[in-house]
Amino acid sequence: MVEPYSQTQQTQQVVYRILDANLDRAREGLRIIEEWCRFGLNNSQFTNECKRLRQEIAHWHTAELRAARDTPGDAGTELSHPQEEQRTSIKALLQANFCRVQEAMRVLEEYGKLHHPQMGKTFKQMRYQMYTLESNLLGHQRHQLLWRSHLYLVTSPSENLLTTVEAALKGGLTLLQYRDKTADDTIRLEQAKKLRQLCHLYGALFIINDRVDLALAVDADGVHLGQQDMPIDLARQLLGSQRIIGRSTTNLEEMQRAIAEGADYIGVGPVYETPTKAGKPAAGLEYVSYAARNCSIPWFAIGGIDANNINDVIDAGAERVAVVRSLMQAEQPTLVAQYLLSQLHRIQPEP
Q1: Residues in domain ThiD2 (predicted)?
Q2: CA–CA distance, 326 with 304 (Å, rounded to integer)
Q3: 277 a catalytic residue
Q4: Percentage of the chain surpassing pLDDT 70?
């Protein structure tokens, strides 16, 4: 049975409205991402990529499709969702708009096949380009924050874990590692999810100690690996390029190997003997001084550092420190974090 022409025309108008709405959605989402790349990151590469994609989308946004628009008659204009009403961080804003653009491109890919023989193929390719852009941009965001982070808290088991961590975050902490060698995986998973939410709420990076599987399960920003843990290249295969991988080092050979293997940052220590690394001799301030002269990636002096000795560590050349007890056992973690950061921020770069 031949479909009446009027019905065919009506279906065509519906397809046009769908294409028009999703072209608008994709362009709007891309513009939001582009503005952050331009003004937030000052990154011309990401900005130009967003602009190129927007211009390609605009090429398909013809007058014929625009003419089918019926905003007053669109039932979707009144629909909303609580998550759309608020954004907790730049990362949440960017991810929401990447999702918006990718969903719109999937719609354009499918309905575009009914409109133009090339449209489906074009938007399929563009959707994959958006996945790549998302991965690269979020990875860039993470690595920028890593370079800006000077205080690193490594947790120890505590009944007040969440309260202590949030207090430190309020004091300006921007980098947290969840470390618990004894808890069951069910407890680790639950705590890691809550800590990740806290970190993202405060705009901090969240790292998991040792466990690549746990990092993937909770969408952590990366992992920290000891000398006896998984090789960095294997962790990179599992985690991808956008997540952060750190490595503990105790001497110059381990430092050089970690850098060569592609670590994003290293721990340098233990500077002082510490119960966290029972039985391990202190690497001392000499290793800190060596790192200051030779390490090309972010590095954190670690091991027994507290408010009483941090200036000795800074004098040896450290610009970043990692702590455990001095924050986890502090009566007022917010004030201790503020004090440690105030000392680290007093470091003046060489002219």
Answers
A1: 17-135
A2: 8
A3: yes
A4: 91
Q: Is 179 marked active-site? A: yes
Residue 350, pLDDT above cutoff 50: no
pTM score over 0.85: no
Q: What's the CA angle centered on 74, arms 72 and 77, to 5 degrees?
A: 90
pLDDT tens, residue by residue, 261-275: 999 999 999 999 877
| Residue 113 labeled ligand binder | no
Closest CA to 245 of 256, 232, 257: 232
**What confidence score (pLDDT) does residue 224 get?**
98
Domain 149-345 CATH (choose: 1.20.58.100, 3.20.20.70, 2.40.50.100, 3.40.50.150): 3.20.20.70
Q: Is 275 annotated as a binding residue?
A: yes
276 assigned binding-site residue = yes
Is residue 248 a known part of a binding site?
yes
Instruction: Break the chain into its structural domains and give their ranges.
Output: 5-143, 149-345
| Residue 8 CB partners (closer than 8 Å, separation 6+) | none
Q: What is the pLDDT of residue 79?
A: 54
Exactly one of 17, 196, 247, 277 is catalytic; name it: 277
Question: What DSSP element (H or E) covers 321?
Answer: strand 321-323
Amino acid at 84: E
Q: What is the mean pLDDT of the chain?
A: 92
The predicted model gives 93-100 an average pLDDT of 95
